[in-house]
Fold each of these.
Amino acid sequence: MRAAVVATVMCLAACTGSGAVPRADAEMATRSGQDLNILSRGRHVYTTNCTGCHALYRVADRNAEGWRDIVASMAPKAKLDERSRSDLLAYLQAAAR
């Protein structure tokens, strides 16, 4: 269990350092027209819930429509409630290419 936690922390550090999972910031909120709190919650869902089953994907590798399809498919498997699903999708679409 400890090894899994260490591996997850290392993956998150590598992903956030490389820009693979950009931080939600005022510029992203302005550009997307989304509330910064929603984007921050969505990023948190991505970096905590999604890593329970797989490595994080580079957010910019998919477009907004692609993320919509993935979230629609994965949210039930991850047992995300509606708010978490909505926040996650808002973040991914705001950070997408």
Note: Residues 2-95 form one domain.
Amino acid sequence: MSDGEAGILRAERGRVLVVDDDVDVCALLEVRLAGRGFEVARTTSAAAALDTLATAEVDVVLTDIKMARMSGASSPAARTCRWW
């Protein structure tokens, strides 16, 4: 598969923002999701996630619920999310 085809495949799978204050968890999720064809951005705080969401198109936010300062559940972005 060429680099161009990989980019098309990733765009079709979706864009995921991973938010977790544990850098190792972010890295693991990024590797696993990217390996399945998703385009992945990651941040280590809810505040940084809000900055990312202001400028990037994201299909799904995968967040840790318990983080220092502002949890994933209490962030302003969570108010517009659908919870599963």
Note: The first strand starts at residue 15 and ends at 19.
Amino acid sequence: MWAESYALLDEYNAGKKSVGLDLKMPDGLAVAKRILSKCDIFVTNLTVRAIASLGLGYESVRAARSDIIYLQMTGFGATAGPYTNFLAWERTSLDSPASTISPVGRIGVQRA
């Protein structure tokens, strides 16, 4: 049920309370939905397709808590365009796709 922790995540989240869950496992997803029922805001940087495949699309999250604020920060847009299903990973998902802010950025990694 618990996901592995990665050094970069630990660095950026030092001092914060957190839990690692494997959302592809039923137990992990169930824990996430219990946590969501107590949250004010849900933030994700996964693609629309990825978050929907996990069962955490807008309607599903809203079913856990009707007044939740749902923020989806995709790297290349959530609704239309040729790059909608491309992944972007930077420190905040808002950094430049050309990696002018972060020299280790990855551009246009497409997942099937």
Note: Strands lie at 41-44, 69-72, 86-89, 106-110.
Amino acid sequence: MLLLAVISVAFVLAVGAVALARAADARGVAQAAADLAAIAAAQAAQDGRDPCGVAASVALVNGAALQRCEVLPGPDVVVTASVLVNPIAGWTATASAQARAGPVR
């Protein structure tokens, strides 16, 4: 009986560790996509192109969806990218990250 309890606890801990690893990976993907999208959008704004359209394309290519894009004076660009993650079967969550980029002053 004690062996069964120990095995059950180990299983629950393993499932929790896998869920945490999946969430951390999704957060990393979202942050990388947001960083790259912000840089590309800032460059697009400098070049007179649509910064938010460029940001959406770059986020998508990097495995994320663009949730927010705001062009600030300067022109700095703030973007938020998100990634859907299934840490445990039957449970879907969203990992989001924000980044800001603009010209060097």
Note: The chain has two helices and three strands.
